[in-house]
Design brief:
The protein has nine helices and 17 strands. It is of the alpha+beta class. The protein has two domains: about 180 residues, Aminopeptidase (3-Layer(aba) Sandwich); about 180 residues, 3-Layer(aba) Sandwich (Aminopeptidase), CATH 3.40.630. The longest helix is centred in the first third of the chain and has 14 residues. The relative contact order is 0.18. The protein binds 2-oxopentadecyl-CoA and ligand EN5. Ligand EN5 binds next to strand 6, strand 7 and strand 17.
């Protein structure tokens, strides 16, 4: 069934039911001297190529590869369109490894035809903080599909991660592989319902007219919570404290320090937006919310070429009710001209999705750990990790 995945240290479908295996590493680390020293062989026409994301020309090539060949929905109507600035942000967190930005080029034309990336992260599973790689942006050009290139890319990134003495990884995918730790659903909140309907992202509900639909999704012009403002550099320490104590309640969550928070949550236009509530009386930072910007190309539409989507990221509601905080996030996203606000049913999100008029999407997101077993998996609401 899974000629490649059967050979890997991941939960195998056949032993998910075996409740006797312990949590933690599936196989022990090997001595670094035993990690294969040279890259895995590629078909003769191709070569490995470590990508330098400082190089604007390379970044443009990577952007183009993904814009034309990365993830689509099940009916091939939309394709993720990560921006160059977003890719730089996503791939260069604190202490990133250049060698984990792995391209495959055609030897002759030097054209970039495939890519996979890893970034380092500390991820906690129950009470175990583990150094992991987060693997993302696996992509093979459409013309080179089904030739078993993906397993070569995965083995090569694994080798380069092992060279840094890291033995676990986290990743998400829309497809089912052995074996998800949990399966999440995407939910969508229309901000610009007319455009969403015009491009086929959503449909006019039964017994609904366009004008009733537009009215249904209307939002106030400005956030309602007193003290709601953009996060700034001076807030990093307070946001880190808030986020660390919040994420502590989840079974699987990142272990963020101040450097991570500065990188992942300080606002960057059209990449990541973060807001917080500063108490007008005490100036204490009591609540926090954030979203990242990931447009999708609209395939085959005469009027529109892109959808501007915000994706819920990390949110912490302590004093302000979560529903009210997320309503303010919707309001600022609408002000900034997003067409749709997306969220997964992770963390406490179930507590606002229906009330704030999100509807379930047709896509799922499966979460995976490599070489780490979590007995019986977890529920989406026990997951405190959002990957880009
Ligand atoms: S998920 C997004 C992945 N990218 C896309 O969907 C883009 C569009 N599709 C493509 O580019 C986020 C190709 O279809 C890809 C597969 C490249 C997906 N994850 O080359 P073959 C991520 O980036 C298995 C893992 O012939 P292809 C996370 C498949 O099951 N495996 O297929 C990435 C089969 O193996 P099997 C996937 O269509 C996490 C084999 O690939 C997969 O030409 C990576 C077929 O290969 C997927 N999304 O190319 C794992 N899709 O055993 C990281 C297919 O079933 C693991 N496959 O025969 C950790 C590593 C680090 C460890 C460190 C200690
Ligand atoms: C790794 N970081 O399927 C990510 N998106 O629902 C890789 N559906 O946008 C894995 N099909 O439901 C990504 N509209 C896996 C996801 C791949 C992309 C994907 C889904 C998520 C999606 C939309 C459009 C469907 C178009 C036809 C969808 C319904 C919205 C509606 C709004 C009004 C209230 C009800 C719902």
């Amino acid at each position: 069934r899974h000629k490649f995945w059967e050979t890997q240290p991941v939960g195998q479908f056949r032993d998910v039911a075996d409740g006797s295996l312990p949590d933690g590493a599936i196989e022990p680390p090997t001595p670094l001297s035993e990690v294969r020293a040279d890259p895995y062989p590629l078909p003769a026409a191709f070569e490995w190529f470590t990508c330098d994301l400082d190089d604007d020309a390379l970044l443009a090539d990577l952007y183009a590869l993904l814009a034309h060949n990365y993830v689509e929905d099940d009916e091939n109507m939309f394709r993720f369109n990560y921006s160059p600035a977003f890719l730089r942000w996503a791939l260069r967190p604190p202490s990133f490894f250049r060698a984990w930005h792995i391209g495959v080029r055609a030897k002759e034309s030097k054209k970039l035809v495939a890519f996979i990336s890893g970034i380092p992260a500390r991820i906690r599973a129950r009470d175990d903080v583990v150094r992991m790689a987060e693997i993302n942006f696996l992509c093979v050009h459409k013309k080179l599909r089904s030739k078993r290139l993906a397993p070569v890319l995965i083995r090569e990134v694994t080798r380069r991660v092992h060279q840094e003495n890291i033995w676990q990884a986290a990743y998400t995918a829309g497809v089912v592989l052995p074996t998800p730790i949990t399966t999440c659903r995407y939910w969508h909140r229309s901000l610009n319902p007319k455009k969403l309907i015009d491009v086929g992202f959503s449909r006019l509900g039964p017994r609904m007219t366009m004008s009733r639909t537009v009215r249904l999704y209307k939002l106030p012009d400005a956030p309602l919570t007193p003290g709601f403002r953009q996060m700034e550099l001076r807030d990093v320490a307070a946001v880190t404290r808030l986020l660390r104590s919040y994420l502590a309640r989840y079974v699987v969550a990142p272990d963020f320090d101040e450097l991570d928070v500065e990188h992942w949550l300080l606002p960057q236009e059209d990449v990541v937006d973060s807001y917080l509530v500063e108490s007008p009386e005490t100036h204490e930072i009591t609540d926090f919310c954030s979203f990242y910007t990931l447009p999708s190309s609209v395939l085959n539409n005469a009027t529109y070429s892109t959808l501007k989507a915000a994706y819920s990221y990390y949110n912490v509601a302590v004093k302000t009710p979560l529903q009210q905080l997320m309503n303010d996030a919707l309001i600022v996203a609408k002000q900034k001209n997003y067409d749709v606000f997306n969220a997964l049913d992770v963390m406490e999100n179930e507590g606002f999705l229906k009330e704030l008029k999100f509807g379930p999407g047709d896509g799922q997101l499966h979460y995976y750990l490599y070489n780490y077993r979590i007995r019986n998996g977890i529920k989406p609401s026990e997951l405190g990790l959002v990957l880009l």
